[in-house]
Amino acid sequence: MELRHLKYFLAVAEELNFTKAAEKLFISQPPLSRQIIELENEIQAKLFIRNNKKVELTEAGKYFEKEIRELFQNLERISVKTKKIAENVSGEFRIAYISSIYSAVISDLIKHLKTEFPYVNFKLFEVSTTKQIDALEQGKIDLGIIRSPVKSPKIKSQLWFQDGFSVVYNKSIIQINSEKEIPDLKDETFVFFNKDYAPHYHEVLLELCAFYGFTPKVVHESNNINSIVQLVKNGLGISIVPSNIAKNNHDPEIGFIELKKVNLFTDVSLITSKEDESEITKLAVEFLLNKK
């Protein structure tokens, strides 16, 4: 049984006239009749009642018509979905980000992409910068959002925005009224990112403290910015975090002092494979660049 047999059958079932059905199919009547006979022989069921006056569907023919119409509808749906998936490069798009930049913008990005590419399964992963670079080189993610320079011949990097730094503290434990008081924090306990997890970021934090004249007493470390802020809230120390965190944190117990005097910034970049020219990647990057 071939698709043409089914198409011919539906044409006759719709017209209930072999001559009109043949004209509709742009073939002559004898070949059409032979195709219908072949179909009936194959499924071993009479589909039409034929006489000199009219053509009618048998009960078996009526059932067959209903099922075949549904079959063609499903084929159309499958074809459309397959085309969409092909246009979207794959059925899955994987985005990695570092914990210190997650905000409503990432959620907005997923919503936007889902609207444009409804057949793609979007996945979000919180991954360190170094691991993101490795994952992108190995094709395990499609888009990365990182802090730090990228030195890889396989990766294309675009600056998303530059972020400053802010001291974060628990208001009920310590009072910091202005940036002038930062040097007085030399005896305080600090919570920092783990050096092995984010080496570049760790070095920047040490540089910041050196600018204000002291070496931080780092007692606690974490690999997650939200955990660092929570440790500060729980009274285990103070920390220095990207200013972007201050913009997205509205906890009344937490205070932030932006470090404006020091000329140190961290680059937040969007990274993709140099070989990736897909529409979905272009749209994702374009959306984020417009949301700086």
Number of helices: 10
The low-confidence parts are: none
Counted up, domains total 3
Structural class: alpha/beta
CATH architecture of the largest domain: 3-Layer(aba) Sandwich
Q: Identify the CATH class of the largest domain.
A: Alpha Beta
Spatial separation of the terminal alpha carbons: 58 Å
Strand adjacency order, main sheet: 4-3-5-12-6
Overall form = rod-shaped
Question: What is the makeup of the main sheet?
Answer: 5 strands, mixed
Q: What is the string of SSEs from the N terminus onward?
A: HHHEEHEHEHEEEEHEHEHEEH
Into which percent range does the helicity of residues fall?
40-55%
What does this structure look like?
The protein is α/β, with parallel strands linked by helices and 292 residues long. It has three domains: 3-87, Winged helix-like DNA-binding domain superfamily/Winged helix DNA-binding domain (Arc Repressor Mutant, subunit A); 92-161 and 268-289, 3-Layer(aba) Sandwich (D-Maltodextrin-Binding Protein, domain 2); 165-264, Periplasmic binding protein-like II (D-Maltodextrin-Binding Protein, domain 2). Helix content is 43%, strand content 23%. The strands form four sheets. Strands 4-3-5-12-6 form a five-stranded mixed beta sheet, sandwiched between helices. Strands 10-7-11 form a three-stranded antiparallel beta sheet. α7 (199-211) links the parallel β8 (189-193) and β9.
